[in-house]
Amino acid sequence: MQKIVVANWKMNSDINLVKQYENNFNGYSNLIVAPPHVYLNQFKLLSTAAQNIHAIESGAFTGEISIHHIKDAGAQFCILGHSERRTYNNETNALVKEKANLCLKHQITPIICIGETLNEYKSQQTLDVLKTQITECLPEQGKFYVAYEPIWAIGTNLTPTLEEIQAFHAFIKTHTSATTPILYGGSVNAENAQNILSINNVDGVLVGGASLKIDAMQSILESIAIKHFTIAPPLLK
Ligand code: PGA
User: Is the CA virtual torsion 173, 91, 3, 180 positive or negative?
Assistant: First the structure.
């Protein structure tokens, strides 16, 4: 399977980056861009992910975005359970699972984030935390991705060792279907992407800060031995 790169812009950047992505990366069929919701339908060539949806299909929820809206806007994927949503919006494992099932019902592939805090990591509770999150967040069946994102590695320039990433991914793989892709996220950049992506059970990376820089993204995409087609439409579309 081709390794995947998910670019999570979070609440950053603007329409110019949309244009730069479309112009520079249109041949990378393994790239999924997660821009702020308002830019989803500006992408004509690249595959997109929403960064979140509401758990309910429609109703009086001023300011929220539904599964139907992201579908209308062309998204094929949706990031769920990102640690920033868990922290700032009090999202629970149960809510993440509810949203994941809603995505599956509407043929959107959820990318479900799990990962431990620094204290949990230091006290060697990572596997216990992952086990709980796997049990409580992941749908029983269906096609979804898992992103292992140690919270202490997000936006900090710190990462687990390659051996740790391999071991934690192996653990997640033993608790998920053999066909579920497991991505790594947390301070992936142009310098470390190649090593992280060379780990056999890392099926791709979820990139935050570095995804805002075209040069860094170019290196990350090039660090996977994939072909760059300049004209062909992405396979994921
Ligand atoms: P980062 O973010 O690459 O800036 O650490 C990753 C993420 O939050 O998904």
Answer: positive
Q: Is 149 a catalytic residue?
A: yes
With contact defined as beta carbons under 8 Å apart, do 202 and 169 qualify?
yes
SS3 content of the chain, % helix, strand, coil (to 5): 40, 15, 45
Quick check: pTM over 0.85? yes
**In this structure, are residues 158 and 187 in contact, taking their beta carbons and an 8 Å threshold?**
yes
Q: Is 188 in the pocket of ligand 1 (CB under 6 A)?
A: yes
The tens digit of pLDDT for each residue in 66-109 reads: 999 999 999 999 999 999 999 999 999 999 999 999 999 999 99
169 as an active site residue: the answer is no
Distance (angstroms) between ligand 1 centre and the Cα of 225 equals 23
Which atom of ligand 1 approaches the CA of 113 most closely? Answer: 9
Cα distance between residue 148 and residue 111, in whole Å? 10
Q: For a ligand 1 pocket test, name from 4, 8, 148 the mutation site with the most ligand atoms within 8 angstroms of its C-beta.
A: 8
